Amino acid sequence: MFYNWQIALVMTLFTMISIFLMISIRDLGVTASKEERQASASLFGLIEERIAGIEDVQANGSVPYVMNRFHRAMRTVFLSGRRAWMLRVIPWNATVILFTIAVTVVLLMSVHLYLIDQITLGTLFLFFQYTQMLNDPIEQLGNQIQEFQRAKSGMQRSHELLSLRSEIQDGADEILPKGALGVQFEHVNFSYNQDKPVLRDINFTLKPGERLGIVGRTGSGKSSISRLLLRLYNIDSGVIRVGGLDIRSLKLEALYRRVGMVTQDVQLFDGTLRDNLTLFNVGVSDQKIFDITEKLGMRQWIDALPQGLDTHLSAGGASLSAGEAQLFALTRVFLTQPSLVILDEPSSKLDAATEATLQAAVDQLLERCTEVVIAHRLSTLEKVDKIMVLGSGSILEFGDRETLAQDHSSHYAELLRKSRLEELA
Ligand SMILES: Nc1ncnc2c1ncn2[C@@H]1O[C@H](COP(=O)(O)OP(=O)(O)O)[C@@H](O)[C@H]1O
Ligand SMILES: [Mg+2]
Question: Domains in the chain, please, with CATH?
Answer without folding.
Answer: 5-162 (1.20.1560.10), 183-266+320-424 (3.40.50.300)
